[in-house]
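dude i think i finally got it to work??
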Amino acid sequence: MALTKLVVFDVAGTTAKDDGLVIKAFQDAIVSMGVVKSSPEFNAMTQYVIDTMGQRKLDVLTHLFEGDLEKANQAHDRFVAGYLELVANGELEEFEGITDFFKTLRSKGVGVAITTGFPREILDLILEKLAWSEFIDLSVAASEVAEGRPAPDMIFRSVELFNVIKGASIGMDDVIVVGDTETDMESGVRSGASIVVGVTSGSRTREGLEEAGATHVFAFSTKIIELID
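look at this
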């Protein structure tokens, strides 16, 4: 196996504690569209959001509103505003040791990429609030690629950007993908990454992550140092 040159991390549930913030912002968004809180429709929509965690948020809302793009975009705007407020208020925290882990990886010559199902405006605020910008090599938001997860577009974009930034020519054999959902695992598998790591720091089980294609499962993202060392 080739030496690892780049690790592509998810955010919520993988490198940052979500603690239900995504669900809260989604619920507020659908209620703003007239869905009655605690109704069967509300509960079904909430469950779908849980089941599709990791996917591009606009895609999820488009499905929930049955392809009505106007409603989906309105709800997405509300979701973005709500989540931005939560992050701005300091409610999103990194998992213990993540910043130091990014430093460790880069000291070993391993690149760090951040990808997310959030749009760029949320990702930028997360990077600012968690002070990650100087410790990573690049970031890719779902709004910047043709297809969100489970498509591998964000991973491919990460490799493309890394090669440009570093003047490198790495391929998928040099990449580790790390995420906390089945969607993350499927995206990693479809990318052809040499290692696809699932972490149980989110809401998913080892069994579910392995069934979705994880080559390794750890409790926390920092444990992947075992694969690199």
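The two ends are 13 Å apart (CA to CA).
im so relieved honestly
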